[in-house]
Specification:
The chain has helices at 17-21, 38-51, 76-96, 108-116, 118-127, 144-151, 185-198, 225-238, and strands at 3-10, 26-30, 54-58, 101-104, 136-140, 155-161, 200-202, 208-210, 215-218, 242-243. By secondary structure, the protein is of the alpha/beta class.
Length: 247
């Protein structure tokens, strides 16, 4: 692999967006569900455009109180409406700003549920079908998200997480468990290089996961997000791996 996309979840009101946009190649923009509003969407799209960063939509449960990280059991029609409405509004704003929305990436609890349950993933991805030409799905590698998106005919970009611990089955360690969120920029940078060079991720129990991920996420709400993104980018560059948008 000669390049790796580095993406961050932005427009969530965390205060580090400007610094992260200098480091990442793709911006997953919160679009009014778990965080964000029309003003933050427009500002983030404009800032990404100015820096040549690809723009994606980052819909989640409309549950701001819990930042979209509480699992909700919604009727399929309601889930469809939430996801489609969020992504559609970002697309409308992006069109006004002369920017293409290149991909959709689910947020938080919704992303985890879609990774585990094909039916949830199918509802979410069917909701955005036809909104944008050649829209890709940024999907957690080795999860039900990949199969559901491919079954619906989407172009799929497989994603890994720089700052999250993995279970041996390839899914993420729940945030409530100790060690689920990683904070050491040096250790995370080493993981990124290993993923890019060898297609491997070390799970929390020490087992080795095989990954075809071409995009690596740094969560914008992780306190060390800027330091992590900077160190990852430096380490990839030192290893001869370019940071470039896949979407």
């Amino acid at each position: 692999m000669t390049s790796l996309d580095l993406n961050a979840d932005l427009g969530e009101g965390m205060g580090a967006d400007a610094a992260l946009l200098e480091l990442v190649s793709s911006a997953s923009v919160a679009c009014g569900g778990h965080a964000g509003d029309e003003a933050t969407m427009r500002a983030t799209v404009r800032a990404a455009k100015a820096r040549g960063v690809a723009v994606g939509a980052h819909p989640g449960f409309a549950d701001r109180e819990h930042f979209g990280r509480r699992r909700l059991l919604l009727p399929p029609a309601e889930l469809d409406a939430q996801v489609r409405g969020q992504v559609r509004r970002l697309v409308e704003i992006a069109v006004e700003e002369g920017v293409a929305v290149r991909y959709v990436k689910l947020h938080g609890a919704l992303a985890n549920m879609a990774a585990e349950e094909p039916a949830v993933a199918a509802v979410c991805f069917a909701a955005v079908a036809g909104l944008v030409d050649d829209l890709a799905i940024l999907a957690l590698d080795n999860s039900a998200q990949v199969q559901a998106a491919e079954a619906l005919g989407f172009r799929v970009i497989r994603e890994a997480y720089a700052d999250r611990a993995y279970r041996p089955d390839g899914l993420l360690v729940p945030r409530a468990e100790p060690g689920a969120v990683l904070h050491d920029p040096e250790a995370i940078a080493a993981r990124a290089v290993r993923l890019a060079q060898r297609g491997e991720i070390v799970a929390a129990d020490g087992s080795i996961l095989t990954s075809e991920a071409r995009s690596l996420c740094v969560h914008g709400d992780t306190p060390e997000a800027v330091a992590i993104a900077r160190r990852v980018r430096q380490a990839l560059h030192a290893a001869g791996i370019a940071v470039a948008s896949t979407p």
